[in-house]
Specification:
- The protein is globular and about 80 Å long.
- About 40% of the residues are buried.
- It starts with a strand and ends in a 7-residue tail after the last helix.
- It contains 20 helices and 23 strands.
- It has three domains: about 170 residues, GAF domain (Beta-Lactamase), CATH 3.30.450; about 170 residues, Reverse transcriptase/Diguanylate cyclase domain (Alpha-Beta Plaits, 2-Layer Sandwich), CATH 3.30.70; about 230 residues, TIM Barrel (Alpha-Beta Barrel).
Length: about 625
């Protein structure tokens, strides 16, 4: 007998809703570049959160086929039994089979018995017009039943996935439509950034010993003025005209694409020795830009496109398409002066004097994060009573080949503004920190990890954190997440909900840098935190400013009344250590307590674990 609970899930051991399954829309988003990997990562996360062995995504493909990807997918096609379950889920909206071996509606053949996937729970996925697209489903070798909260979480994940699929479907009802709208610029019909990167990548991979790939990024400086004087339609036509001229003037194989706004990319595949000296390219590039900049008649006027060009060459300047295009962008002349007809500048590598090191940080930071090249150091946190090592804070370190040691103050602001960069950095640091704590044994220190403020407002942040921690095998109770005041003040209620959910699952939370400009003791009544870290700027003033001591004393008193532990940061001298101890702080960190260890190993931390001699 079917049972419908509050989540809308149909649960069944033997019966299911009758009816004809609506034919899902025949779209094929799994064929889009990169989408299968993205869906695989998504289902990995869902499987980790729900604790089942298999989580999959099944979508209706062309000609009625089912397309499948996800966590726990083995080789081979989809069984008839799975297809039947999908159709039942499409009809009912949500369907759960506690034990497939007892499901009399579906004959379980020997292959299904060998697979031993007896539990099934799925929810229907719909597109932007309400049409069914497919199924997000869980399977497990043991009979089981999801609780109400687990079913709701599966529904929440399905909602996120529907949004992703809906966007894909609106862009692409068929594969050809996807390619046309996603890879081509909608206005000019020129190849878009993705296709330009892919083409440059393919050419670089296939380079012969006497070939080079030249990327020319062209900025039409007076496009804004032309749009203002004659309308955007005229500006769009001018872009198309300039692109056609590039095709006509270029020698060898050429691709012309639109990157964004007033910028075009011209890719050239030319014969020539792969040397650092690109002087022989100056003449053909100048001829190309001159042809693109020829005057043209607009209405009753003659207008000259005013162009600037940045040039980069592979393989000497870059070894992949995206990097090559970026080098060409960075080589563009800085001046926006439109008085000159054209200006051309070649990329001269990391020693390029036209670019300040600070301007290169975002680009190189993305590369470092993708290569997991950012290091992690660990600073000890000690109890002030017996100086016992209780935790270690993970600190990001970045040593760049071109920029040298980049201090966190220079690159963390970029992390706070970029969700993709923030997620990559958080994943890397959290994973490394958990593995280090695990290597130090069950009696070792806990690990404290800073969380960028932007992460707190991502829809799957809490699930992501648990998935990373659980993936390392470290008990959740040994992890502390550090948040800054300025990262939570914009949405105290939303942040509190997320933190409560994490704390219920064993994660502790610390409020970092307390006592700075945003400081408000009122936050402590609304935020579910376990530890409070007094900012180093306040600690540094304890010896010289009586008012600072009064403020710090008040913070410690109120924090203790709320049951919070207090950690003093930035303890650099014996005097500061005595002061924070006298204030009643529970623990401290800083160079006097223990410096960060860049190369952390078990032996080094065994030494660090010994209490410092009493003074």
């Amino acid at each position: 007998m079917a049972i419908r609970d509050r989540s809308g899930m149909t649960r069944s051991n033997s019966e299911h809703a009758t009816g004809t399954a609506p034919r899902p829309h025949p779209t094929d988003p799994l064929s889009a570049p990169g989408y299968t990997k993205r869906f695989d990562k998504f289902t990995d996360l869902v499987a980790g959160v729900t604790g089942v062995e298999v989580c999959r995504l099944a979508l209706a493909g062309p000609e009625g086929r089912w397309l499948r990807c996800g966590h726990g997918v083995e080789q081979g096609g989809i069984t008839p039994q799975e297809t039947e379950l999908f159709e039942r889920t499409i009809v009912a909206g949500a369907h759960e089979v506690l034990d497939r071996a007892m499901d009399s509606d579906v004959e379980v053949d020997e292959r299904a018995r060998e697979a031993a996937m007896r539990f099934y729970s799925g929810v229907r996925l719909c597109g932007h017009q309400g049409q069914p697209l497919g199924v997000l489903y869980l399977m497990d070798p043991l009979p089981r039943e999801l609780g109400d909260s687990e079913r709701q979480r599966l529904r929440d994940f399905a909602d996120l996935l529907e949004s992703e699929l809906s966007v894909t479907q609106q862009l692409s009802e068929t594969r050809s439509e996807l390619r046309r709208t996603h890879l081509l610029d909608a206005v000019t019909q020129l190849p878009g950034p993705l296709l330009v990167d892919d083409k440059a990548d393919a050419w670089i991979r296939d380079l012969g010993a006497s070939e080079r790939v030249v990327a020319v990024q062209v900025h039409l400086r007076n496009l804004g003025a032309i749009n203002g004087a004659y309308g955007p339609e005229v500006g769009d036509e001018l872009l198309r005209l300039v692109a056609r001229r590039a095709h006509a003037a270029a020698t060898g194989v050429v691709i012309v694409g639109r990157l964004s706004g007033a910028r075009l990319a011209v890719l050239l595949r030319l014969e020539g020795d792969n040397t650092e000296d690109n002087t022989e390219l100056t003449a053909p590039v100048e001829a190309l830009i001159a042809a693109m900049a020829e005057p043209t008649d607009i209405a009753a006027d003659t207008v000259s496109p005013q162009l600037a060009a940045g040039v980069a060459v592979a393989p000497t300047d870059a070894q992949d398409g995206a990097h090559l295009i970026e080098c060409a962008r960075r080589a563009l002349p800085d001046s926006d002066d439109a008085s000159a007809t054209s200006a051309i500048r070649f990329w001269r590598g990391e020693a390029d004097v036209g670019r300040a090191p600070q301007a290169r940080i975002p680009f190189r930071l993305h590369q470092a994060a993708e290569r997991r090249a950012l290091g992690v150091a660990f600073q000890p946190i000690r109890e002030l009573g017996d100086q016992r090592l209780i935790a270690m804070e993970a600190l990001v370190r970045w040593d760049d080949n071109a920029l040298g040691r980049v201090v966190p103050q220079s690159f963390i602001p970029h992390v706070e503004e970029d969700p993709r960069l923030s997620r990559a950095l958080t994943h890397n640091v959290l994973e490394v920190a958990c593995k280090q704590a695990l290597a130090l044994g069950s009696g070792g220190p806990d690990v404290s990890v800073n969380i960028p403020a932007i992460e707190l407002f991502q829809p799957v942040f809490a699930d992501f954190v648990l998935a990373v921690i659980d993936g390392t095998g470290l008990p959740r109770t040994r992890v502390i997440l550090e948040l800054t005041e300025h990262g939570v003040i914009n949405d105290l209620q939303g942040v509190a909900t997320t933190l409560n959910w994490l704390r219920e699952r064993g994660i502790r939370v610390a409020l970092d840098d307390f006592g700075t400009g945003y400081s408000s003791l009122n936050y402590l009544r609304h935020l579910p935190v376990d530890l409070l870290k007094i900012d180093r700027s306040l600690v540094a003033e304890l010896d010289i400013d009586p008012a600072a001591e009064e403020v710090a004393s008040g913070i410690v008193t109120i924090a203790h009344s709320l049951g919070l532990q207090v950690i003093a940061e930035g303890v650099e001298t014996p005097g500061e250590l005595d002061r924070v101890r006298a204030l009643g702080c529970d623990a401290a960190q800083g160079f006097f307590v223990g410096p960060p260890l860049d190369a952390v190993d078990t032996a080094a931390w065994s030494v660090q674990s010994q209490p410092r001699p009493s003074r």
